[in-house]
Each structure stands twice: as C-alpha cells, then as structure tokens.
Specification:
- It is a single chain.
- The protein is mainly beta.
- It is built from three helices and 36 strands.
- The strands form eight sheets. It has a seven-stranded antiparallel beta sheet, with no helix packed on it. Strands 1, 3, 5, 6 and 7 form a five-stranded antiparallel beta sheet that branches.
- Helix 1 runs antiparallel to helix 2 and helix 1 runs parallel beside helix 3.
C-alpha cells in the first residue's frame, strides 16, 4: 500500500513533469506546492489526496488548452498566404501607366486575394491566375504619381481558425511625355535597335543637365530626333515631343536630314519625286518645312547601282546645304548649295574615291575630309582628317589617324574615332584648332574598329553628348555629357540606342 508520504512524493513528481511538459507558469506551480506543504503536518490523508487530484486535473486541463491553442496557431501559420515576389517591385520608379500587377505566391491560396491601389486612379481588370501568380491588369494611372498597392486576404483552417493577411508596397509611375515647353532634349531607347525585341523599348528624353524630362512608347526599331529633340522621325511618321503626329514625309525621297532649326528638312529624290530606279538618274536636292510638301532646290549627283547623292548638313539658319556624291569606296564630290536659290557656294571633287568620309558643321562653315590611301596589298587605309574652311576653301587643321564623327555647334571641337581599325576603339573630344585631346571614352574591351561614336551637339551651346557602341544587340553602353573644357558626366547607362 502507498503511504501518504509516497503519494505526496509522487504527486510532487508528476506535478513537476506536467509543469515542464505543458509549461505551466512557475507561479501557479509554486502555489500548488505551497498548498501541499501547508497540509503536510496535519497528515489528513483525504484532504491531501483531494487537493493533489484537483491540482493534477487543473494542470492537465491547462495543458490541453495550451496544446489546442498551439495546434490552431500552427495551422493558421500554415494557411497564411506567402508572397514570393511582387511587380512592380517595392520602391520602383518609372512604372508604366498601363501594365500588370503580378503577385507570385509560394502556393496558390485557397481563396482569391483582393488587390487595390491608392490613389484609386485608372481601372483594374478582373484578377486571374497564371500558375501561382495573381495577375491584375491596370490602365489609366497618372504620371509621376506615387502609389501604394495593398494585397488583402482572409483565410481559414480546418480547425475553424480565421486569419487576415495584408501586404503593402509602393511604386512611382513614369513621368509621361515631355511638356510642351521642354527642350532641347536628348533621346535614347532602352533597348538596342538590333536587339531581340527592338519594338518594345521605351524612348526616354533627357534635358541637357542629364535629368529625365519624359518618356514615349513608340513601336519600331528607333527614332531619329531633330537637333533640339522637339521633333522625332519614327517609322509611322513625324511626331512632336509629346507624341502628337505632325504629318509624314514622302517615302520616295532619300533622307530626310533635319535642318538645324529642327523645323525643316533636306532630302534627295529624282526630278519628279519618284523612287529612284538606279539607272543613272539625275538627283535633286529637296527642302521644306516638316509636314509640308518639299520643293526642289537644285540638281546634284546621280542615282545608280551602289552610288547616289546624300545630305551631309542642312542649315536653315545659314541658308545652305552640304551634299555629297557617294560611290562604292567613299565620296567623289562635295558641294555647298544655297537653299533659297540653288546657287553653288562651294565645290570640291576627290580623285579615285580616296575620301571615304566627309562631315560638316551644322551651318556648313567647316568640312572634315578623311584621307585614305591604298597599301601594298591593295587594301584601303584611312589616315588623317583635314579640316577645311568653306568660305575660302583653306585647310585650317590636320588630325592624324582620326576620323571625325561630329562638330560641336560652335564648330570649335570635334568628336573623333581612330582612323586605323587596328587601334582600340576610343571616342575623343578634340579642339581641332590646337589638336588638344580634351576627353577620351574607351570602347568596350576587345573591340577594334567594330564600334562607332554617337555624338549630339547642344543647339546654340558648346556641350556635346557622346556615346560609343554599335547597333548590334550589345547597343551603346553609356552616354556622357561632355563640356567644352573636357569635364564630363555620365547621364545614361545601357545597353541603349541613341536617337541621334
């Protein structure tokens, strides 16, 4: 038979075990032990037994409640939705005004969550599932607006537990097209023109401090901007900086080339404006305001085979155009023609097509003529570039082993690349009057002669935007704003496709 002392000892032991197993609080345990100690000296068997049994029952009941609560909590935690990713991401900038919310779950929830955004601009389509991703299309968001997205979901368990889940994040929409008064502008596409999806790129406009001034979404492989960036030539026609159509240019004239006022163009065509057939037809220079019929200015060059006339520079401000006759190996002739009368202001022919490139300042005051020669193996080698003043035809500078890609607006500096393809690609800003190299931009590693420079002079200024790259899928890696003293700031990072 178990004595009172043995029963008391076992109850104390079981109470300790229960206390540790179900985690009864130390205060409750001490109260029970103290009550047992109070009755120990009386040796009244029945009260001690009753008290011990009551204490054990209380501990077991408390443990059962805790265990049930723990099971319910575990089941709720398992049922709670778990989000792996959201798009747009938290803190994203430049989010499209029309697009999709995409919320990916680790496991699709049993009930359909609710997604809202605030301010409640625009519209949301009915949600749909794409695997474990909740997709909600939206449209009509406002430009440059900060939004908060809120995902809500009520959920239950088989044990009757109920829970509520919320996830919040923010994003900011794109700035939209540049304002009517913005300009001059610098345009580039977010994907290379020769990339795998050239038609999906966003056209971004920067001001000349390098800040984003607006965006446009134009289908096609790219744009060709006017000098001040307020007019754009796209595959669908002419538009202004806000995307509004301005008309179309006749496709049967070669070109066009923007005039330096960004409101007129020069182009080449046949005498009747018909598409050249390539049978040694006479070329004609055309000129006029954008969105209006172009008028014939003067005859020059001829279309045939792999040759034809082209516009080098078109200056409404100086009333002249620089034109060239292209042949297989380069340029055979250059003329400067007065746009208002068709008079020839300057003419120069090149023998044996030994001039592969001719560039001009925007106003037609200076020409950059590339010199070429044939080596002993019969291959053409490019050499120095000569800077010629049109007013008197005088040579005013020589740049050894450099090809000029563009003049600054004031004509005092040029952007060059190495003339010899054996040299590593490197864009330079050069003061051609002194020959001083003011700034250098190396090409991508391992590229010799496979890249080209992109340069845009600031209208009525001295700054230039310069990049180096190709029209391949690699695109242009960087755009730099380069000042007349050679200081430079990176304003865009690629791959990208310049609009100039």
């Amino acid at each position: 038979m178990i004595t009172d002392s043995q029963l008391e000892s076992r109850l104390r032991h079981y109470g300790s075990v229960l206390r540790d197993d179900i985690q009864v609080s130390p205060a409750v345990h001490r109260q029970m032990v103290a009550r047992l100690d109070r009755y120990q000296s009386t040796r009244r068997h029945r009260p001690i037994m009753q008290l011990a049994v009551a204490a054990a029952m209380l501990l077991v009941a408390a443990g059962a409640v805790v265990l049930v609560q723990r099971v319910r909590a575990n089941e709720l935690a398992k049922a709670e939705p778990r989000v792996s990713s959201v798009s747009p991401t938290d803190g994203a900038d430049g989010v499209l005004l029309n697009g999709e919310f995409r919320i990916t779950f680790a496991k699709r929830p049993a009930t359909l969550p609710e997604l809202i955004h605030a301010p409640a601009d625009g519209r949301q389509a009915a949600p749909r599932w794409d695997g474990s991703t909740l997709v909600v299309s939206y449209s009509g968001l406002h430009t440059s607006q900060r939004y908060e997205a809120v995902l809500k979901s009520d959920y239950t368990t088989s044990l009757g537990g109920q829970g509520h889940y919320e996830k919040r994040w923010t994003f900011t929409t794109e700035s939209g097209p540049p304002s009517a008064g913005a300009g001059p502008l610098i345009w580039y596409a977010t994907v290379p023109a020769a990339g795998s999806h050239p038609s999906t790129g966003t056209q971004i406009a920067l001001d000349w401090s390098g800040h984003v001034a607006g965006v446009l979404h134009e289908s096609g492989s790219g744009i060709f901007q006017s000098p001040d960036g307020t007019r754009l030539l796209t595959q669908s026609g002419l538009i202004d900086q806000s995307g509004q159509p301005l008309g179309s240019l006749l496709p049967d004239k070669g070109g066009p080339n923007w005039a330096d006022d960004s409101r007129h163009v020069c182009a080449f065509g046949t005498a009747t404006g018909a598409v050249p057939s390539g049978n040694q037809e006479q070329g004609w220079l055309y000129f006029g305001a954008i969105g209006s019929p172009l008028h014939r200015v003067a005859p020059f060059g001829s279309f045939g085979g792999q040759s034809g006339p082209a516009v080098v520079a078109c200056s409404f401000l100086s009333d002249r155009a620089v034109v060239e006759q292209l042949v297989i190996m380069g340029v055979s002739e250059v003329r400067v023609i007065k746009l208002s009368t068709g008079a020839v202001l300057f003419q120069r022919q090149y023998s044996n097509q030994q001039t592969p490139f001719v560039r001009a300042s925007h106003d037609g005051q200076y020409l950059a003529e590339q010199i070429a020669s044939v080596d002993t193996a019969g291959a053409q080698r490019n050499g120095a570039t000569l800077i010629r003043r049109v007013s008197d035809g005088k040579l005013v500078a020589r740049l050894d082993n450099q090809t000029v890609d563009a003049f600054s607006w004031d004509g005092a500096r040029v952007v060059t690349m190495p003339a010899d393809l054996a040299f590593p690609d490197e864009a330079r800003l050069v003061d051609w009057q002194s020959g001083t190299v003011l700034w250098r931009l190396p090409g991508p590693p391992g590229t010799n002669g496979g890249e080209r420079a992109y340069a845009l002079p600031r209208p009525n200024g001295t700054d230039m935007v310069v990049g180096i790259g190709s029209q391949s899928a690699d695109g242009v890696g960087q755009l730099w704003l380069v000042r007349a003293d050679g200081t430079a700031t990176q304003i865009a990072k690629g791959p990208l496709s310049p609009g100039f």
